[in-house]
Amino acid sequence: MSNDVVIAGGGFGGLYAARRLERRLPRHSARILLVADVNFLLYSPLLPGAAAGSLEPRHVVVPLREQLDWADVRLARVTGADPELNELRVHTVDGRDETLRYDQLVIALGSVSRVLPVPGLAQHAMGFKTLADAIALRNRVLWNLEVAESLPNDDERREYLTYVFVGAGYAGLEGIAELQDYVADTLDRYPRCRLTGTRWILVEAEDRVMPEIPASLAAFATRELRGRGMEIRPGTRLDRMDERTAVLSTGEQVATRNVCWTAGVRPTPVVRELGLPIGPDGRLEVDSHMRVAGRQNVWAIGDAAAVPDPAQRRKRACPPTAQHAIRQGRVVADNVANTLRGQRTRPLRYRTLGVFVDMGQHKAVATMLGLRLRGFPAWFAARTYHLAMMPGLARKLRLGLDWGVGLLFGRASAELGQLGHPDPLERHLEASAESEDPAVAER
Questions:
Q1: CA terminus-to-terminus distance, the chain
Q2: In this structure, are residues 108 and 11 in contact, taking their beta carbons and an 8 Å threshold?
Q3: What is the tens place of the pLDDT at every residue in 286-295?
Q4: Which long-range contacts (CB under 8 A, 24 or more apart) does 362-368 make?
Q5: Taking all residues of the chain, what is their mean pLDDT, rounded to a whole number?
Q6: CB 106: neighbour CB atoms within 10 A?
Q7: Where are the domains of the chain?
Q8: Are 96 and 74 in contact (CB under 8 A)?
């Protein structure tokens, strides 16, 4: 009899779980269904590169079907579940509500931006979590350069040339560093903006940047960014903002049209609709084998699950990083396969191998196998690691070519905000209806 294995989520955890299950389970013994709201995996560590124009956006995503041999892929959004009936509810991309039956369920739904109730934030700031966010941020930067170049005086231009990033974790620090590097490369094409200059502010509520890395490397990163003219503000919060001003907890009012919110993530809200136990941090409660508390056939991994971290003696949850989600996906796949065969499962034993923080300009900070690297060696190690981890030989080649072309020829400065949003044909029909004979137009 065939078993139905449903994997909810197509991120690192979900995709790697599906790939491993294809190898562990014969086709006749199981049906593997991967449910995802998009048909690709976003290689999120490379998101700043896509935003800064050093990588083609298509090359930081991996189509799910390219990586799977026989598992089925269903484009749908998870809306709820009934664990008592072994059912998962989804809403398909074409608008249908469906109920999927499962024998084993793996939840890998990931996370969304953690947006705090700061007045004006949700209405006027930009996020930096998805590929759409990255491309929109790049387009905003270029559009603002165009606007600023057309303005008559420096005061008006400065609003468009001031950039505030809130949150100095991975996304915030790498994002502001890569974008500043990109704007510096592009600014020569905007003579008025070059004379006015740009301003970059990184705001962090904690007392230092990047709490995930050793303090010495965080201090090096801070010195490096300040050396490029950035303003690093630890122990500072965003109090409120509107379309033209960001007010910091120090009382400073920054005139800016560009606020990017990168202050952490939280589990996808739908995990609360699954009828499963949730911990204080909003993540699903699981044991060291990644089995959801109280359920023998439901597993959870990635950002949506509080998987006990072996590096912290299992007293804290694993950090929400890609490398942890990949290893969790592989181990949970082994556990699902072993469960179906009546064999013993095993706990997650993975410990972080390294941390890489790319700061642009061929510099980075990194910890790797106990070593602490900074500057160019860390940057080279980071590029090598991401090249090795990118799934598929073709994707690796595209990634390497993008980096090589960027080193030789620089980056393009075309603003592509209309990409994917064409004018409807009826607009052109209305414009030409009075001047054209329909019979002639058809010919």
A1: 60
A2: yes
A3: 999 999 999 9
A4: 363/224, 365/210, 365/213, 365/217, 365/218, 365/220, 365/221, 366/217, 367/213, 367/214, 367/217
A5: 91
A6: 32
A7: 3-113+266-352, 115-263
A8: no
Same fold for the pair 3-113+266-352 and 115-263: yes
Dihedral angle sign, alpha carbons of residues 380, 384, 386, 387:
positive
Closest by Cα among 399, 376, 375, 378 to 387: 399
Give the position of tokens 């058809």.
Answer: 442
Residue 67 one-letter amino acid = Q
Domain 115-263 sits in CATH 3.50.50.100: yes
Q: Give the span between the Cα atoms of 380 and 400, in whole angstroms.
A: 12
For tokens 């490379």, the residue is 46
Residue in 227, 56, 33 with CA at minimum distance from that of residue 131: 56
Whether the Cβ atoms of residue 124 and residue 256 lie closer than 8 Å to each other: no
CB-count exposure of residue 24 (10 Å: 0-12, 13-18, 19+): middle
pLDDT tens digits, one per residue of 69-108: 999 999 999 999 999 999 999 999 999 999 999 999 999 9
- Summarize pLDDT for 26-71 with one digit per residue, the tens: 998 999 999 999 999 999 999 999 998 888 888 999 999 999 999 9
Q: Which pLDDT value is given to residue 212? A: 79
- Secondary structure element (H or E) that encloses residue 240, with its range: strand 238-241
Which residue, 348, 345, 329, is CA-closest to 297? 345
Sign of the alpha-carbon dihedral angle for 39, 42, 48, 54 = negative
pLDDT of residue 411: 77
Model pLDDT for residues 330-342, shown as the tens digit of each residue = 999 999 999 999 9
Pick 3-113+266-352's CATH classification: 3.50.50.60, 3.40.50.300, 1.20.1290.10, 3.40.190.170: 3.50.50.60
Cβ neighbourhood burial of 62 (10 Å; 0-12, 13-18, 19+):
buried
User: pTM higher than 0.70, yes or no?
Assistant: yes
